[in-house]
Amino acid sequence: MDEKSSCEGACSRDTPRLSESSIEEGLRQRPLWRRTADGRAISRAFTSKNWSAAMEFLNAVSVVAEREGHHPDVAIKNYRDVEVVIATHAIGGLSRFDFILAAKIDAECAATYSPKWARENGLA
């Protein structure tokens, strides 16, 4: 489940759900991502430097998602707090395609973090 794989055919009722062990392994490979409280999705959240940096990141995510045909839920709150949530909607849970998309976002979408947030989260 890396950025070289494809999300083609991602959102189908026939898409197999990942096992718990596969989800745990996927999260080990994607340290910026967390499982949502309900366990049905993964999310990445951070505070960007400013509104423009948040929009640049989400615009880059949009390009990747459209190319892959697998679309996350995205949000900006408080003008620079960014959240991306990925799930395979057709199965109401996680599939390998969710981790493929997360890997592609990590590889292709540069985030400009708030310096304070980056320090507090060990990314500075």
TrEMBL record:
<dbReference type="InterPro" id="IPR001533">
    <property type="entry name" value="Pterin_deHydtase"/>
</dbReference>
<feature type="region of interest" description="Disordered">
    <location>
        <begin position="1"/>
        <end position="24"/>
    </location>
</feature>
<protein>
    <recommendedName>
        <fullName>4a-hydroxytetrahydrobiopterin dehydratase</fullName>
        <ecNumber>4.2.1.96</ecNumber>
    </recommendedName>
</protein>
<dbReference type="InterPro" id="IPR036428">
    <property type="entry name" value="PCD_sf"/>
</dbReference>
<comment type="similarity">
    <text>Belongs to the pterin-4-alpha-carbinolamine dehydratase family.</text>
</comment>
<dbReference type="GO" id="GO:0006729">
    <property type="term" value="P:tetrahydrobiopterin biosynthetic process"/>
</dbReference>
<dbReference type="Pfam" id="PF01329">
    <property type="entry name" value="Pterin_4a"/>
</dbReference>
<dbReference type="GO" id="GO:0008124">
    <property type="term" value="F:4-alpha-hydroxytetrahydrobiopterin dehydratase activity"/>
</dbReference>
<keyword id="KW-0456">Lyase</keyword>
